[in-house]
Design goal:
By secondary structure, the chain is α/β, with parallel strands linked by helices. The protein contains 20 helices and 16 strands. The two termini are 29 Å apart.
Length: 538
């Protein structure tokens, strides 16, 4: 470390954003270009290079965070890029879209402000592109094996890039007209400008990955079983795109739409498919039902479309500003956060969110058009409407951002390959990402369920390693950061006993407080109980 006391003397500084109101005049990314350059070295210097870096455990990719922090602090940018790209295929995506559970697990965050890991990662990634450090890596020789990847979201793209670099002839099949999945049509450009996606796809093409758009695997003209016959292995990475709905009175009203329908049309408009979005919020009173990232993306999009008013409903109570007792370090806590979209709406002074609000119905104007959304206060615990608290919010556009419940059942991939679904609606697979069909593997949200982009990339890398082992007869040349059953760092308590921030997975025989290791999933993980961290390799 250049300055071993920097974490004590240097305050945390985040990347600067453009003025919130100025951001509403365009769809460009919200951050000031080059805003990291004057401060990033000092921020990397805040890393304590601690002996047991829990940021490793919180990141499913196993990013070598202290390594590249030290290198950035010393201005060794190309070496830092080599460390970052060794574990993460798409750091320019995670540096913009990941909620940074690594920062929640930073040892410095126990009683101070965490290192700005996400900002440092982003600057390394962007500099790697600018300096030419992130070059195509075509394989030295081909293996002769052919692999099909169904789906082009982050899991499918990560799997395809790893398999191509290992020498397998890999083709990505995407049912949409452009490659990218939710990166393309789900994430607004103010969070990820699409030229960054195009740049990465150009790199993958230069390495040898093939892409087929408009290829709806499972349809009559491209059945999944026939695709399997033409390839030595298949990776299913179709995501969890079955939107949850609300079966409430008035749901059929004109003006009630799924959030992904709204975001997809907005993104297609940005791509030039429409002069104006066919589902615009301009001049309309908008109510967004949901409290997650998709809801926040709808909020930012509606504000840019000049909605007359926007309200976001969250059925959960307003989170505290600090960690709750049952979410101790190093888990990623549910705390009050202001996204860039909420900032643009005036938060925290004028927060557009209504917390502890449950939707009970939709009102129409008598002609079938939405006129209002009926809500009530959600009762603690069961979330049922509290009697006497009902009220109506005026609305002529309601967007349902309630999450997803696994892959869409309408596609016939599972039926054609003889696959099954688990209780949560995800495709069934074993710990090595393999399904009951020989040579067929599942990666990403299709098997894990709705999750974060960093988990999708980790799934893609690990599924690629499993395919590589399958094709090579047991030997593996590719890294696998997780298994299909790995879970995020979390804490749980038996018999609802209070939890304290002990900071180490395992179990205390004295108190009975139980921790589950987020790496191997075992509460009795001996290494974790000794405070060494899980040593299981995935």
């Amino acid at each position: 470390m250049p300055d071993p006391k920097a974490f004590l003397t240097t305050p945390r500084r985040q990347r600067e954003r453009r003025d919130p109101q100025a951001r509403l005049d365009d769809r460009r990314e919200v951050y000031r270009p080059g805003a990291l350059l004057p401060i990033i070295n000092q921020q990397a210097d805040r890393c304590m290079d601690c002996g047991l870096p829990f940021c490793h455990h919180a990141c499913p990719l196993g990013n070598l965070i202290p390594d590249w922090n030290v290198l950035v602090a010393d201005d060794h940018w190309r070496r830092a890029a080599a460390r970052l790209l060794a574990t993460n295929n798409f750091p320019e995506f995670t540096g913009r879209l990941c909620p940074a559970p690594c920062e929640s697990a930073c040892v410095l965050a126990i009683d101070a402000d965490a290192v700005t890991i996400k900002n440092i990662e982003l600057e390394i990634a962007d500099r790697a592109w600018e300096s030419g450090a992130d070059q195509p890596k075509p394989p030295d020789r081909m293996t002769g094996f052919r692999v099909a990847v169904i789906g082009s979201g982050p899991a499918g793209l990560a799997a395809a890039q790893q398999l191509t670099r290992a020498g397998h002839t890999t083709t990505v099949y995407e049912r949409a007209d452009r490659i990218g999945g939710l990166l393309r049509y789900g994430i607004p450009p103010f969070r990820l400008e699409k030229h960054r996606l195009e740049r990465r796809l150009a790199q993958m093409r230069a390495e040898g990955t093939g892409f087929r758009t408009g290829a709806a695997v499972g349809d009559d003209d491209l059945p999944a079983d026939r695709l399997r016959e033409r390839h030595d292995a298949v990776v299913i990475a179709i995501g969890a795109t079955a939107c949850r709905d609300l079966a409430l009175p008035g749901r059929e009203a004109d003006g009630v739409h799924q959030a992904m329908t709204y975001l997809t049309l907005a993104n297609r408009t940005d791509e030039g498919d429409h002069p104006v979005s066919p589902l615009s919020a301009e001049g309309r009173s908008v109510v967004i039902v949901g409290g997650g990232d998709t809801a926040a993306d709808c909020l930012g999009t509606a504000l840019r479309q000049r909605a007359a008013a926007v309200t976001q409903l969250d059925i959960n109570p307003r989170p505290p500003h600090d960690r709750a007792d049952d979410q101790p370090w190093p888990v990623h806590p549910k705390v009050y956060r202001v996204t860039t979209s909420h900032e643009e709406a005036g938060a925290p002074v004028a927060d557009p969110r209504v917390f502890t609000a449950t939707t009970v119905g939709f009102e129409t104007d008598g002609r079938g058009h939405l006129a209002g959304v009926r809500i009530a206060s959600a009762a603690p615990g069961d979330r049922h409407p509290t009697p006497g608290t009902e009220r109506t919010l005026p609305a002529d556009l309601a967007l349902l951002a309630l999450g997803f419940s696994g892959p869409e059942r309408e596609n016939r991939i599972a039926e054609q390959l003889g696959l099954t679904h688990d209780a949560r609606g995800n495709l069934t697979r074993d710990e090595e990402f393999a399904t009951s069909a020989d040579g067929v593997f599942v990666a990403g949200d299709a098997g894990r369920g709705q999750s974060l982009i960093v988990w999708a990339i980790a799934e893609g890398r690990s599924a690629a390693a499993a395919v590589d082992r399958y094709l090579r007869g047991g030997t593996a040349d590719l890294p696998a950061p997780i298994t299909a059953t790995s879970r995020a760092l979390h804490a749980y308590v038996e018999e609802r006993r209070p939890v304290r921030a002990l900071g180490v997975p395992g179990a205390s025989p004295r108190t009975g407080r139980t921790w589950a290791c987020g790496r191997c999933g075992e509460s009795a993980c001996r290494a974790s109980r000794r405070g060494e961290g899980c040593l299981t390799r995935h």
